[in-house]
Amino acid sequence: NYYIQVTGSPAQTSVEQQIYQVSGALAVTGPNGSISVTLPTLPGYVFNVYVGLTTSPANLGLSASGPAVGPLAGQATQLASGATVVITAVGAAQTPPAAPATGIYVFPTIFIGNHSYGQVLLENPEFHYLTGADKSDPNNQIRIVSWKLFYGSIILNQANLARVESSSAFVPGYTAGTVAAGN
Questions:
Q1: Predicted structure pTM score
Q2: DSSP tag of 114
Q3: Long-range CB contacts for residues 113-116, cutoff 8 Å, separation at least 24
Q4: How distant, in Å, are the alpha carbons of 4, 123, 146 from that of 126?
């Protein structure tokens, strides 16, 4: 028997935020001993499917529905919302985040400490302001006064960064790609 767990990430951030409960024991069926999984329908999200022989799956599943190229090619990751995917084998070792109790909402917070990252100026700042009656918009910002500059950033010391997860009795009231109500 196998156990599966599904996680969902906003397509724009790829941070696993929807963590679903581990399934019950599943017997392999279908062509060549596969497991068919219907993913939740959550607009703007992509999904990962983890599989294992215990109630703590520690591997991605293998699926033809996953990426075709790259280090996770053939793995059950970046799967479309609402799709039915076929897991054909145990894939790369990767542990999913712990699932909260049903109905509990988890809110991630990132703490950024001193000297955790560095930035370099890639282009000098450009400042624009209108001195008279003019409808030009040189920075395409629909403003009378505008500025632009470009930085390059790099993580210098990962030990000074922390991701903390907390829960709350309050239900999230927004769904703008960072938190969606309901598990």
A1: 0.65
A2: T
A3: 113/157, 113/160, 113/161, 113/162, 114/160, 115/156, 115/157, 115/160, 116/155, 116/156, 116/157, 116/158, 116/160, 116/161
A4: 52, 9, 8
Burial label for 44, CB within 10 Å (0-12, 13-18, 19+), is middle
pLDDT in tens, 153-181: 999 999 999 988 887 767 666 554 555 54
29-77 pLDDT per residue, tens: 666 788 999 999 999 999 999 999 999 999 999 999 999 998 899 999 9
Query: What's the rounded Cα separation, in Å, for the pair 30 and 102?
Result: 30
Q: With beta carbons less than 8 A apart as the criterion, state whether 147 and 125 touch.
A: yes
Per-domain boundaries in the chain:
3-93, 101-175
